[in-house]
Specification:
Layout (H helix, E strand, L loop, with lengths): L7 H37 L14 E8 L11 E12 L2 E10 L3 E5 L2 E5 L4 E2 L4 E4 L8 E7 L3 E10 L5 E8 L3 H44 L1
Parallel strand pairs: 5-10, 6-10
Antiparallel strand pairs: 1-4, 1-9, 2-3, 2-8, 4-5, 7-8, 9-10
Length: 219
């Protein structure tokens, strides 16, 4: 076996193991904390009413339903959606997220319609639509249609007769179920971080042991 061929196995183990260690460290260190911070922000927010949407720049939480004033998208009856394509990955078919369609949305709460500025994040959805014709088996659309219940968390960027919420996160949830989902996301991120760290640690340790064995053999 050539000089460099001896180091091929430990090199491969290290090349795979170290990125897993880095990814696991980042995942465990940052993602759960970010989710927890968002959950704390949501927990302290009262459910807004028509009378309380009066302080520009504050975080607000809306529980309502999609107003029928919102125009239909190009995938009716949905007014906003995430698009998924059916793809083959190592011989297995799965749905891969391709894009979000997030135009201006109107949400109805008791006594008022509230405008949700375009570009919001769809965290979970209520309804599903499908393409027609040849694409019907290859594309899937998940989003909201008029009258679907909806939760919005964002910044009140305009008040008065036409309140606007910007930089919003939108979900098919109530405040309580949304908080429960965030708690699950934080736990999942922690366990994924542990899994990546464990796998990366084993691969890196394997690389060290193999390299040590090669060194002893040469000695």
């Amino acid at each position: 076996m050539g000089k460099w061929e001896r180091w091929l196995v430990p090199g491969i183990l290290a090349a795979v193991g170290v990125p897993f260690l880095i990814a696991g460290s980042l995942l465990r260190a940052f993602v759960p904390q970010a989710v927890d911070r968002h959950a704390q922000e949501v927990a302290r927010l009262p459910v807004a009413t028509a009378a309380t949407l009066n302080e520009q720049g504050t975080q607000v939480l809306l529980e309502g339903w999609v107003s029928d004033h919102t125009p239909l998208s190009d995938q009716p009856p949905l007014v906003t959606y995430s698009e998924y394509h059916r793809v083959s990955n190592d011989g297995e078919w799965q749905w891969e997220h391709r894009r979000n369609y997030t135009p201006t949305l109107w949400v109805q709460i008791p006594g008022r319609d509230v405008e949700i500025a375009a570009g919001y994040t769809l965290r979970s959805t209520a309804s599903e639509g499908k393409s027609l014709g040849e694409q019907s088996q290859q594309r899937r659309y998940k989003g909201f249609k008029a009258t679907d219940p909806i939760l919005v968390v964002g910044t009140l960027s305009a008040t008065g007769d036409r309140p606007v919420v910007s930089a919003a996160q939108i979900a098919f949830a109530t405040k309580d179920t949304y908080l429960a989902t965030l708690a699950e996301e934080a736990v999942t991120a922690r366990w994924m971080g542990i899994l990546f760290l464990s796998l990366g640690g084993m691969l890196t340790l394997g690389a060290i042991l193999v390299a040590y064995g090669i060194g002893r053999t040469k000695g």
